[in-house]
Amino acid sequence: DKNVTFVFSNGGFQINRNESEIFKIKGDIIDSDNSNNTIKFKIDNKEDFVIVEANTEFGSPVKDKTGNADAEDDNATLRQATIESGAVTVSKKTTSPVDANYVRGTKNITVLIANVKADQAIKAESLTVTIDTSTTHDLLQYVENMKVYVNGTLLDSVDPASTTETVVFDTQVDLNAGDNEVKVVYDISSDLNADGKELTVKLLGSNLLDSPEYVASGDGVTEIQGTATGAKISTAGARLTATRSDGYSDGRTVVKGTE
Questions:
Q1: Which residues lie below 8 Å from residue 101, measured CB to CB, with a gap of 6+?
Q2: Rounded to 5 degrees, what are φ and ψ at 248?
Q3: CA of 163: how far to CAs of 114, 131, 141, 147, 190, in Å?
Q4: Residues of 6-18 as b/e, b for ≥16 C-beta within 10 angstroms?
Q5: What is the pTM of this model?
Q6: What is the per-residue pLDDT across 213-236, written as a single tens digit (0 to 9) for each?
């Protein structure tokens, strides 16, 4: 068993009287050699959930949803999640960039670094990058020169359509047996309208490769599992601020001819 502690910033998280809050635990599944791993979170001891009354600063008991039992062990256990591995899996690498803000006109922004792990060498007719339409994606129309690198080699470069949900790189993809790094890079237009926009891209196992097959046997790959979601890229225009620094006071009289 392993323990993880979540500490709320700014002195804690406030919950008002007669209100309820939902806390979600999210994380990235990083590629692993182990398969069929299971994860289950629980509050081990009721004292691990620290709640303090705002007015009195007295500690408050933590109960389960019935209000009768202490929220610990079996009474505070989340459902189990199972991580399954397949013949081909997609996952985000630990070196993949985090959410970031860029000035319009920025070039060669790395937005996602993923690992595609195959049990045998594979070839496919194309590779697809998916636009995350569940989040704001209005930066797409200002994206230029989207590139995909496979194991350090440029696969192709595409200017995506402004309303597309997928960007297809229509070039043969060759994957080695074992780990393969897939990197997504693009430029942002210098258009003034690109300010205040956002975009997130991802690789979905379900549509990543077109007609994938094993090199040795020619058999088709029946399933690719996993998802790798890239950083959320936001834009803002460059700003120039001018300030006075001549040292002169207002209303100063200057004699003609003075340098």
A1: 233, 234, 235, 236
A2: -85, 145
A3: 24, 10, 7, 18, 19
A4: eeeeeeeeeeeee
A5: 0.66
A6: 999 888 889 889 999 999 999 998
